[in-house]
Amino acid sequence: MTHVCSKPDFDLAIIGASFAGLVAARSAAHRGLKVAVIDAKTEPGARVRTTGILVKEAIDECDVPAALTRKIPGVRLYAPNGKHTDLTARGYYFLATDTPAIMRWLAGEAARAGAQLWFGARFTGASMEETCVRLHGLDVSARYVLGADGAKSSVAKTFGLGRNTEFLIGMETEYEQTPTVDPDFLHCFIDTRLAPGYLGWVVPGAGMTQVGLAVSDGPFGARRKPDMDAFLRQIDSRFALWNCAVLRKRSGPIPCGGLVSPLSTHRVLLTGDAAGLVSPLTAGGIRLAFQYGRRCGGAIANYLLDDGPDPGAVMAREYPRFGLKTWLRRLWSAAPANAVLNTTLFTPPMRALARRIYFESRRTDRFAPVPAPAAL
User: Fold this and answer.
1) Tag placement on the chain: N or C end, fewer CB within 10 Å?
2) Which domains does the chain have, with CATH numbers?
């Protein structure tokens, strides 16, 4: 039997107070929608699973307060034998962030725009009714649902949408801020033995030092696990982190298989990590979350308020396809031997390739480095 919502509680229910979800909530609320953001976490910024590095272009999509960030001008890339080279681009920088504070700020911005934020409320399922979607267990109905609930999206599972199947597995430890880490660089370690299919990193963060490692699955689905202890032993003589207090640890999957399919169904759309909006090669996703979270909020508002086109169809045309990056991901996951990397990594052809990988071209005279994972 099909039920009719006489008057849905909300125009838009966003599942997940993520980067994408909060930016979408702010955009949709500013355009006049009645918006609810539903998240199982007890508060914004709880259980953060991201390094939180912003590329410069992310600020063009969402103006984050400077007080919550710190500029890092370049990348120091290390070969397995410990040799390194420095990569910079004129006028370019990264932003290390106080990520929990950024999430609290984004939540405040969404609330100021008019969105209602429901923390400690878990999405457990939903059913499609004639004019709305009813959320089970919450006794809430909405005209539209946006799934921004992460790499293993419950919204995608509930509505039979595409789900991420390829992941990097990452681990990160936050230490107290230490003077042994050069603050002008993101320190990125290429080492097939320790980080097959990705890299290790040391980030001079905003008030702390972040140290992480991520690996991909091997050929034919072989499972790999990051060995954080081995990575720490390798870099200890350089950074002396053994003498620093540990603040917190985190780990988790990073989607790297590109866009999921299908992305939407009637009255439901995926965005952010739930949609696979993460670069398969670099694992960068925050800029994409800002950009397409905002666009989703606008497309849904146009659909509900002005009889605009279906948001799923709109975003399917706009979301990036990651074609070349997906193939490069497959090649990098094959993990070339360290001996090969030591010999070739800093030769002119390989430096050019590294520039291509780490400095994604935005303009003819500028490159945008994306060396550290966006989410763990």
Assistant:
1) N
2) 10-369 (3.50.50.60)
